[in-house]
Structure formats: C-alpha cells, structure tokens
Amino acid sequence: MSNDEFTPDSTLQRLYPEAAVGGFSRQDGQVEFYTRVNALIDENSRVLDFGAGRGHWAVDPMPAMSRRLRMMRGRVAEVVGTDVDPVVVTNPSLDSAQVVDIGAPLPFDDSSFDLVVADYVLEHVTAEDAKALAEDVMRVLKPGGWFAARTPNKWGMIGLGARAIPNKFHVRVLKRLQPGRKAEDVFPTRYAMNTKRDLRQQFAPHSLYVYGHKSEPQYFGRSTLAWRIASVVDHFTPSRWAPTLMIFVQKAER
Q1: Which residues are CB-contacts of 244 (< 8 A; sequence separation ≥ 6)?
Q2: What would the pLDDT profile of 201-241 be if each residue is shown by its tens digit?
C-alpha cells in the first residue's frame, strides 16, 4: 500500500477525527518523537539506527507525514543500522547494516555518529547489559551528539501490562489485541532501561532529558471500548507514569 492509499482505521477516525487531516492524531507519539529527532540532524549527519529490524514502517501502511519524518536516508550523510536479527540487512531505510549479537559491543570507532536512534528497543535490554550498552552508545557518539530513544515507561500502563504477562505469551496476547501485528515484530521485554532513575544512572555523566508521553492507545488494537477506557486512565495518570518515555541524551563535550 502506498502512502497515498493510507486511510486511518475506523477506531482512530472515530475517537480522533482530526486524523482525517494527514492520517495522524494530535497525540501521535511517532510524529512527536521523530519531529524532535529531525531537529537534531542535517545533511551532514551520520546516523545509527540501533535495533533497526526489518524497517516495517518503511513498507507497511503509514501516514505520509510519519514516513517522511522517519525516513532519514537521503536527507543525511549516512544511515547505518544494527540489529540482532539478520533481517536488518533487508531494511530499505538504511544505507548499510550490520548484525550485532546481544551484549556484543558496537562494531564502530569512537565518535563515529552524530545521532543514535533506538525506537522501542530499550525495553528488550537485560539488566546485565544495560550499563555497558549505554556506555557503548555514548562511545560511538561524537562529543555533543545525541542519543534519542522511545520506549514504554516501566511504571506506565503498557509497561505494567507487559510485565504482568510472561514473555512466552506475548505473541498470543498481541495477536488478539493487534491482529495485524506480525509475530516477527514481537520480542521479549526486560524493562531495565525504562525509568528515569535507571536512565540517570546508566547515562551519567551525560545530559539526560526525559519526558512522559500519552499517545492514542494503538496498543489495544481496534477496540473502541478499550481505547476509551485507556484514554480515561491516561487522562488521570500523572506524567511521570505516562505510557511512553521520550529520551534524549547529549554526550558530554569531553
């Protein structure tokens, strides 16, 4: 399906009628996150997409604006991708890709990138690997460069729900909630890098900026009732317990 053929699903249109204008809601987390990411790059930037996967968003139906914001290839000097899954080499949004084993150091020289992006990746990192991963990400960034991540909040509704369900049942549960989601896009969750406190410890002494975000409850598939309930819960939830964390870390200038 091309961008021109994208149509918001009926649940999104019913609860967020503004989605008729461009295909996204006023609370769209993807637009929020990647708008800020785009503010950190220019035509000379070298970008690392950490945990890039197959790049499902580049081939699956998506609003044209969201795709434009996410597709950095061709607008920056280079986009390099890494993932533990060999499928990353098929990702059409990358100039090059490398398979990196879980817990292995990134195969790049110090100060190689201006920006590292990790979109819904940190929740899969184990407690044993978290500190080393944070240090390695900072190592490959240039001084003053940025690490940008979007991930569920450990204490948010999504994080609490995911941790209440054993990993072996995640595919089964998500298949019921999100019938269109592919099994290869579901991974075990750990939640070792998903609180402000953990992030402050893991990314010290660099500058950390974290805020909670409440997007439309896409996680609940197309159930209008589930969306309404989730939206009411979100409305009364303090920002520190918002479902999603937007994370930006600037590497210290030596």
Answers
A1: 29, 150, 151, 152, 153, 156, 158, 212, 213, 214, 215
A2: 999 999 999 999 998 887 777 788 888 888 888 888 888 89
| CATH code where residue 125 lies | 3.40.50.150
Distances (CA, A) of 100 to 9, 86, 90, 108: 36, 9, 15, 11
Tell me if 231 is assigned to some domain.
Answer: no
**Reported confidence tier of residue 168, pLDDT bands at 50, 70, 90:** low
10 Å CB burial of residue 14 (0-12, 13-18, 19+) is: middle
Q: Which structural domain range is residue 73 located in? A: 3-7+19-154+191-216+244-250
Phi then psi for residue 141, to 5 deg, are: -80, 145
The vertex-83 CA angle with 81 and 88, nearest 5°, equals 65
Q: Does 222 fall in a domain?
A: no
Residue 118 bridge partners (DSSP): 149
Instruction: Report if residue 72 sits inside a domain.
Output: yes
Q: Are strands 141-152 and 244-250 parallel, antiparallel or unpaired?
A: antiparallel
pLDDT (0 to 100) of residue 231: 86
pLDDT confidence tier of residue 166, bands split at 50, 70 and 90: low
pLDDT tops 70 at residue 129: yes
Q: 164 in a domain, yes or no? A: no
pTM: 0.87
